[in-house]
Write a structure and sequence with these properties.
Elements: E1 3-9, E2 13-21, E3 27-36, E4 43-47, E5 53-58, H1 67-82, E6 88-93, E7 104-105, H2 108-115, H3 125-138, E8 144-148, H4 158-161, H5 167-171, H6 181-194, E9 202-208, E10 212-218, E11 221-225, H7 246-254, H8 260-269, H9 272-277, H10 283-288, H11 292-316, E12 321-325, H12 326-331, H13 333-342, H14 352-356, E13 371-373, H15 378-393, H16 400-403
Helix pairs in contact: 1-3, 2-3, 6-15, 11-13
Length: 405
């Protein structure tokens, strides 16, 4: 089976999907799986196209101590038991920095440049790169492609990308990048089929999950994002602060005696919904909690989403549609309703029945601003980029019908 393997590696799990190429060169997901519990209770789970279980097995802790080991075990399972030898591997890499505005074939030089961006995405970059290095060492001839969460935003106008700091720092790469770009790119490419009447218009997309951000899209291109230099900025997230006065960081270091590393760890891991509520970083748990601070954390989240919607509408100089996506955006009836209520001034009028059944369009027929739910698919976006790059650079190894597509 000609296939693309897509890998999304975290600190204690490796998620993967396998996309097969059909006779017309289209991608179809065949396998979805993950190796989680790395370093504690390693477990491989995988399902097929119909949700049927393909694997569910535990491993001794010592056999899978880290992310590279987990990927190699999963790869061995795919190769030995399913006879899968992928044409290439596509990786989600959170930060592409100033060097990368599109997917790139990976070599040791690319890895070295991406390692220098670790301080800009400390929760993600080291784990994104670990399986890449492992596969480079074990399978040096296997093509690997890095797909960046920052790339979709790289066409921003200079006014949107600059901070009010000396130009030399901007030239060094201290600028607003934006993240969740693979998700936004997928939404932008999907809108012509889902809602062609607004696909080329001014759209705000709210990617609301444990990591959360919003993006202003006009004509299918990113115009503005709530995230900036790092994935800390913008909306409050599961454990990340979102927008915060830089003076707070200075205060943590000067008055509280935190080192830069301690302040970074605090802002990434102990804040957001977790810090506000003192209960959980999981929106589902907060909604089921009777703790008043859990309710406050939800109120704060909704308020900040609505606040940033106003900013993005200003960047677009108007608004033609609003889209919810990602875990909270796709699944939480209550959060969507509360955000929509705060956006009534923009012309949003939600249909409670359509919202309750998670319909593709959840606004009333007469709503001036239509509201949609569009499930995201970052993995398919990565697979498409990987296949495209593979066709461009290694066309001799791709089936003729794929090269012609």
């Amino acid at each position: 089976m000609d296939a693309i393997l897509v890998v999304n590696a975290g600190s204690s799990s490796v998620k993967f999907q396998v996309f097969a190429l059909d006779g017309e060169g289209r991608l179809r997901r065949e396998i979805k799986g993950q190796m989680d519990g790395i370093g504690s209770r390693p477990r491989l789970r995988a399902t097929g196209t119909t949700g049927d279980t393909l694997a569910d097995r535990a491993y001794p802790i010592e056999s899978i101590p880290d992310v590279p080991a987990a990927l190699l075990v999963a790869a061995a399972w795919l190769r030995d038991e399913l006879q899968l030898s992928p044409l290439a591997v596509g990786h989600r890499v959170v930060h592409g920095g100033p060097d990368y505005d599109r997917p790139v074939l990976i070599d040791h030089g690319v890895v070295a440049r991406l390692e220098r961006l670790t301080t800009l995405a400390p929760l993600h970059q080291p784990h994104n790169l670990a399986p890449i290095r492992s596969l480079l060492a074990k399978f040096p001839s296997l093509p690997q492609v890095a797909c960046f969460d920052t790339a979709f935003h790289r066409d921003h106008d200079e006014l949107a990308d600059h901070y009010a700091i000396p130009r030399r720092l901007h030239d060094e790469g201290v600028r607003r990048y934006g993240f969740h770009g693979l998700s936004y790119e997928y939404i932008a490419k999907s809108l012509p089929n889902i809602a062609p009447e607004i696909a080329q218009g001014r759209v705000i997309v709210a990617h609301l999950g444990s990591g959360a951000s919003m993006c202003a899209i006009h004509g299918g291109r990113s115009v503005e994002s709530t995230m900036g230099f790092t994935a800390l900025d913008g909306l409050p997230m599961g454990t990340r602060t979102g927008q915060i006065d830089p003076g707070v960081v200075l205060y943590l270091m000067s008055a509280k005696g935190m080192s830069p590393a301690e302040a970074q760890d605090f802002l990434y891991r102990d804040c957001g919904l977790k810090g506000l509520s003192g209960v959980s970083n999981d929106m589902r748990e907060l909604q089921n909690s009777s703790d008043p601070w859990a309710a406050f954390a939800i109120d704060h989240f909704v308020y900040r989403v609505a606040l940033h919607a106003g900013m993005l509408a200003a960047a677009l100089q108007g608004l033609d549609a609003f889209v919810f996506t990602a875990g909270i955006g796709e699944n939480s009836v209550g959060i969507r309703a509360r955000i929509a209520e705060r956006l009534e001034w923009l012309g949003v009028s939600l249909d409670p029945a359509e919202n309750a059944r998670h319909a593709p369009r959840i606004s009333r027929a007469g709503s001036r601003i239509p509201v949609y739910i569009v499930p995201t698919n970052e993995e398919l976006m990565i697979a498409q980029h990987t296949l495209s790059l593979l066709c461009d650079r290694h066309s001799s190894s791709i089936p003729k019908q794929v090269r012609a597509s």
